[in-house]
Amino acid sequence: MNDIKKIKQIINSMVANSPIGAMKISSTILLRKIEKIEKECEQENKIENAEQQFTGFAQGYYFSNIIGLVESMGLEKREWNYLKNKEMVNCLEDNEIKEIEEYFKK
Fold it and tell me: N- to C-terminal Cα distance for the chain?
């Protein structure tokens, strides 16, 4: 999203400094296309978030233990370490974290 904002700023500065009408029209068209892409990206993000939430719900519903969840995700040790190091597993209980640690020691 920050890249899109930067592109918009560049285009707007080009338009402001341009005496050529054709450039103003072209930049307006370009800005509209960028806004359309931006909206499509937002929609895709919402869809991906919903998919992740449904997946999480289903896994929580069908798996009674944390290892079943780990296996269903196909989580690898390096991925687990990354999540753990970035403190992205704070929602887990200490005993669940220990259980996953033991799983990856095998």
Answer: 42
